[in-house]
Automatic annotation (TrEMBL):
Descriptive protein name: Sigma-54-dependent Fis family transcriptional regulator
Modified residues (4-aspartylphosphate): D56
Organism: Myxococcus landrumensis
DNA-binding recorded as keyword: yes
Keyword flag tRNA-binding: no
All residue ranges annotated as the Response regulatory domain in the record: 8-121
One protein family per Pfam: AAA_lid_14
Length: 474
């Protein structure tokens, strides 16, 4: 790694020996700049950006809090690590509440310094990734709510736009939750009928005895409860588009009348023989295989061919996994919790790894659930629904049960022991995630962590994380 590509760290301390110590610990992996006090640090911050700032709290003049405030004012994405004596730990905790990433208490272990700085750099990287994902989302290809930049979605956008301009019946097919109603609305909005009504009905949700009345209307007194004449959905959609969702669920007798309505471009209200002319474009949708339904005698062949003028297949989410991060960020942005900034890399990997049998609708529900339960600024694998357990385990790497048990017992320990225990737990989880990311390749993992290979080996040994447990089978 060339010097110019190394991350940058600003070390702020009024004691030269401490600055030199940090420079020796970090100098191989980072470009280290020193500042002898808070004023010098603030001057440095005004002229250039740093990835991480490591600053002592107690300094004459501008102290570590002043440096922290300047960093958060000028470059909020820069991560700040406070250095403090044991007696000043409460101040360090206060600084974390004000936006510092973490603190180091004196005396500290050089490997601990390297690990905390590496984690801070990873947090900054995650922030960049989240910002990048938001930027991609802002310019992501989208057709009236159908979001996705994958090749499959680009082909779908093009086909829908092309079909929309021709006043033909369209049959949308695809699994449940793939966005068939959004596709129908896109066809309508891209068509010359866009200024006219778009009327949607789920045929499978209508009671069998009311389907005909809902579609075609009824005359007063046509049946018990028909106290007044009522136009049907065909008449409501006159001049526009009628979307018949789950058309495969229509009863056979109604299929006969629907076929006639499409052929004659007129409907007869229940209880009358007077035809009513309608100018309607029909877009139908189903998750069923209608050709198989025809063979089984559950769907009329003549209606199938009348609907099947142009067929558009919507791809399932598992066939366009590259769209999952964009969709997840899109749903997060609509969730109403601006303090939740994004997803951890492990959570995104779990989302991408899942097969999503319920497709986009299931993903939307999963993100809504995660946003509701998360307690941090980023959604973690633990915030995801239980049905993602397999993908979640693959994303996080199953860590030792003792790690979680240790976390549960922290409250029973003295403060210093609790802090050390929590730090050990986070360190172990970080190292496990790092090994999972690189398949146990210590060299590549060390580059990501911003430390020497030997230092990472020592940390792995210290925390009982075995790189060979993460080796990927060829």
């Amino acid at each position: 790694m060339s010097t110019s590509s190394k991350p940058s760290v600003l070390v702020v301390d009024d004691k030269e020996n401490m600055r030199k110590l940090f420079s020796r610990i970090l100098g191989d992996a980072y470009v280290v700049t020193e500042a002898a006090d808070g004023e010098q640090a603030i001057a440095q911050l005004s002229s250039r950006a740093f990835d991480v700032v490591v600053t002592d709290i107690q300094m004459p003049g501008a102290d570590g809090f002043a440096v922290l405030r300047e960093v958060k004012h000028r470059a909020p994405e820069t991560q700040v690590i406070l250095v403090t004596a044991y007696a000043s730990i409460p101040k360090a905790v206060e600084a974390i509440k004000e936006g510092a990433y973490d603190y180091l208490s004196k005396p500290f272990d050089p490997d601990e310094v390297a690990l905390v700085v590496a984690r801070a750099l990873e947090k900054r990287r995650q922030g960049h990734e989240a910002a990048g994902l938001k930027a991609r989302l802002a310019v992501a290809p989208e057709l009236h709510g159908l979001l996705g930049g994958s090749a499959a979605m680009q082909a779908l956008h093009g086909l829908l736009s092309q079909v929309a301009t021709r006043d033909l019946t369209v049959l949308l097919t695809g699994e449940t939750g793939t966005g068939k109603e959004l596709a129908a609305r896109a066809v309508h909005r891209e068509s010359p009928r866009a200024a006219k009504p778009f009327v949607a009905v789920n045929c499978g949700a209508l009671p069998a005895e009311l389907v005909e009345s809902e579609l075609f209307g009824h005359a007063k007194g046509a049946f018990t409860g028909a106290t007044a004449a009522k136009p049907g959905l065909f008449e409501e959609a006159h001049g526009g588009t009628l979307f018949l969702d789950e058309i495969g669920d229509l009863p056979l007798p109604v299929q006969v009348k629907l076929n006639r309505a499409l052929q004659e471009k007129e409907v007869r209200r229940v209880g009358t023989t007077t035809p009513v002319k309608v100018d309607v474009r029909v877009v139908a949708a189903t998750h069923r295989d209608l050709s198989a339904e025809v063979s089984a005698g559950r769907f009329r062949e003549d209606l199938y061919y009348r609907l099947n003028v142009v067929t558009v297949q919507l791809p399932p989410l598992r066939e366009r996994r590259e769209d999952v991060p964009l969709l997840a960020m899109h749903f997060l942005s609509r969730a109403g919790r601006p303090e939740v900034e994004g997803f951890t890399p492990e959570a995104l990997r779990a989302l991408v790894a899942h097969d999503w049998p319920g497709n986009v609708r299931q993903l939307e529900n999963a993100v809504a659930r995660a946003v509701a339960v998360t307690k941090g600024p980023r959604i973690t694998p633990e915030d995801l629904p239980p049905e993602l357990n397999t993908a979640r385990a693959a994303a996080t790497g199953a860590t030792a049960p003792g790690v979680r048990a240790a976390s549960d017992s922290l409250a029973k320990l003295p403060y210093r022991e609790a802090v050390d225990g929590a730090r050990d737990s986070v360190s172990r989880e970080y190292l496990s995630a790092l090994m999972l990311e690189f398949g146990g390749n210590v060299t590549h993992a060390a580059e990501r962590a911003g430390m020497e290979r030997e230092s990472l080996h020592r940390l792995l040994k210290r925390y009982g994380v075995r790189s060979e447990d993460f080796k990927r089978s060829e």
